[in-house]
Amino acid sequence: MDNLEYLNKISTESAAKSAKSQNDNSLLSPTIIKILIGAAAALVLIVILGAVLSGSSSRTTALYESFYLRLQNLSADNGPIATYARDLKSSNLRAASGTLKSSLTVTYQNFANLLPELNVDPANISEYVATSETDILADYKASLQNAKLNGLLDRTFAHSTTLQISLLIAIGSEILERNPPDNARAIIDKSVNDLQILHARFVELSNNSN
User: Fold this and answer.
1) Does pLDDT of 20 surpass 60?
2) How far apart are CA 137 and CA 135, in angstroms?
3) What is the pTM of this model?
4) How sure is the predictor about 127, in pLDDT bands with cuts at 50, 70 and 90?
5) Which domains does the chain have, with CATH numbers?
6) What is residue 35's predicted lDDT score, i.e. its pLDDT?
7) Are 57 and 83 in contact (CB under 8 A)?
8) What is the distance of C-alpha 210 from the center of its chain?
9) Which of 36, 85, 123, 195 is 20 to 30 A from 98 via CA?
10) Cβ contact 70:167 at 8 Å
11) Alpha carbon distance 73, 137 (integer Å)
């Protein structure tokens, strides 16, 4: 091999190595790195968004369940409102209680018809909601029973029922903020408006009972 051939061989081998090196480096080029980082960031956002949406959906379902059970408990013929309103001394408080129960009964019946559309199974309420609503009802009943035994039923009934109305308004209002289906929105919106009027009446009666 003469000098010229030797130089040509070295040149060819050097060019081949350079090309291979460039190909290897292209895998980690700034453009590729940016693409990989962007893909990773997008994946993280998708995971986070999925978790947020899942949590939001669960919260909305829980609100529907609470609204349903609260209406059922408060509007029942053997519920605390109907049971203790009969023993109230104030005719005004009895009248307001009758109006409240009638309003709750109508709302309960209308809302119960929408449960399939809201993907709520009344026979399969989440344990957390069922337990929470049972405890709230038990506390309400206990306060009224103790008040009756101590001759303080009117005052306690007015205060406690005002609180129950406030809690129900709060549940309904949060549901409305979550863009429920139109049918549910119409029912809950009317219920909240009616309850706000009744709340003002019970506040007045509560103040007069002190």
Assistant:
1) no
2) 5
3) 0.73
4) very high
5) 55-208 (1.20.1260.10)
6) 52
7) no
8) 36
9) 123
10) yes
11) 7
Residues shown for the chain: 210
* Residue type at 26 in one-letter notation: S
Taking a C-beta distance cutoff of 8 angstroms, is the pair 58, 164 a contact? no
pLDDT in tens, 26-71: 445 665 555 555 555 444 433 333 433 344 678 999 999 999 999 9
* Ordered DSSP codes for the chain: --HHHHHHHHHHHHHHHHHHHHHHHHTT-HHHHHHHHHHHHHHHHHHHHHHHHHHHHHHHHHHHHHHHHHHHHHH-TTSHHHHHHTT-S-HHHHHHHHHHHHHHHHHHHHHHTTTTTTT--TTS--HHHHHHHHHHHHHHHHHHHHHHHTT-HHHHHHHHHHHHHHHHHHHHHHHHHT---HHHHHHHHHHHHHHHHHHHHHHHHHHHT-
Residues near 160 by beta carbon (within 8 Å), at least 6 away in sequence: 140, 143, 144
Hunting for tokens 């007045």 — which residue is that?
A: 204
